[in-house]
Write a structure and sequence with these properties.
α1 (28-56) packs across α10 and α3 packs across α10. This protein has 324 residues and is mainly α. Strands 1-2 form a two-stranded antiparallel ribbon. It contains 11 helices and 2 strands.
């Protein structure tokens, strides 16, 4: 018999699970219930792996700074995608996510803290966690110094100041900085063909929940669990790189806008000087023309008779004034 199913998001947010359209259809609630149970089981396995391997077994603490951020991106994907369909998964992260935030924020630079702050802001806006957990996360990220709440006008003023500080006439963005930023984007995530190929080559088993019914034994289940774990890490790392690339491109856009504004100001100044020097050139050219005209009107001394052509010498004073 043909099964009639409507797909809805899986609790882990990574794929879909099937639900029965018609309770009287041959697939019945039993088959779908088994499938849902299998999805829930493997989803819990993913959560367990994330918690035990990445947070509780010091893998997070031993990882490189950018890898630590990747782990938190992966946790963020699971937490947000599980909010409605599997809230128990979101709760499972609560005991360890605060310590993870505290460790990553203390071991990484301001750029990483900015990314974590964005994640925390999204959780706060979407009420992913209760206020007490959010306060603990803020404390872990910012310490005793909580982020200052600002009015819309203050935010706009700060944005304008930040944009104008780079492009002020006294300190414009340097051409070398722009070149470096453009060169960095040559190796950005969106242009990583190798990762694109790896993502495109992901096995269909990690993307289609309907294939979970092929799991017949523990060995095949563990093998699929390992494949799903690797796929999650690959995609979370790539998503983190894409987020960083977006920030880099935004920063480059601001730099280019400031640089262009400075160049326009410099162009206007140079054009003004050019007009000024054109006027000076016109005045000097007029003086030169008048000078040439006057020189031409002067008598030609070379045409006068040569009064010094003979070999006669003028008498000396002693010759003129002689004693009698």
């Amino acid at each position: 018999a043909t099964r009639s199913r409507a797909c809805r998001p899986c609790p882990c947010g990574s794929s879909t699970i099937a639900s029965t359209r018609d309770p009287s259809s041959p697939c019945g609630s039993g088959s779908c219930g088994k499938l849902k149970s299998a999805v829930t089981k493997i989803s819990r396995r993913i959560i367990s792996l994330l918690q035990s391997k990445f947070f509780q077994e010091n893998r997070l603490y031993d990882a490189k700074p950018n890898r630590k951020l990747t782990f938190l991106y992966l946790a963020n994907d699971v937490i947000q995608n599980s909010k409605r369909k599997g809230p128990e998964f979101t709760k499972d992260f609560a005991p360890v996510i605060v310590e993870a935030f505290k460790h990553v924020s203390s071991e990484t630079d301001d750029s990483c803290k900015k990314h974590l702050g964005r994640v925390l802001s999204i959780w706060e806006e979407r009420s992913v966690y209760e206020n007490d957990v959010l306060e603990q996360l803020k404390q872990a990220l910012y310490g005793d110094k909580k982020p200052r709440k600002r009015t819309y006008e203050q935010i706009k003023v700060d944005e304008n100041e930040n944009c104008s500080s780079l492009g002020s006439p006294s300190e414009p963005p340097q051409t070398l900085d722009l070149v470096r930023a453009l060169q960095d984007l040559e190796n950005a995530a969106s242009g990583d063909a190798a990762v694109h190929q790896r993502i495109a080559s992901l096995p269909v088993e990690v993307q289609e929940v309907s294939l979970l019914d092929k799991i017949t034994d523990k060995e095949s289940g563990e093998r699929l669990s390992k494949m799903v774990e690797d796929a999650c890490m690959l995609l979370a790392d790539y998503n983190g790189r894409l987020a960083a690339e977006i920030d880099d491109r935004k920063q480059l856009t601001r730099m280019l806008a400031d640089f262009l504004r400075c160049q326009k100001e410099a162009l206007a100044e140079k054009e003004h000087k050019l007009e000024e020097y054109k006027r000076k050139l016109a005045r000097v050219s007029l003086v030169r023309k008048e000078l040439r005209s006057r020189i031409q009107s002067l008598p030609d001394l070379s045409r006068l008779p040569n009064v010094t052509g003979s070999h006669m010498h003028l008498p000396f004073a002693g010759d003129i004034y002689t004693e009698d």
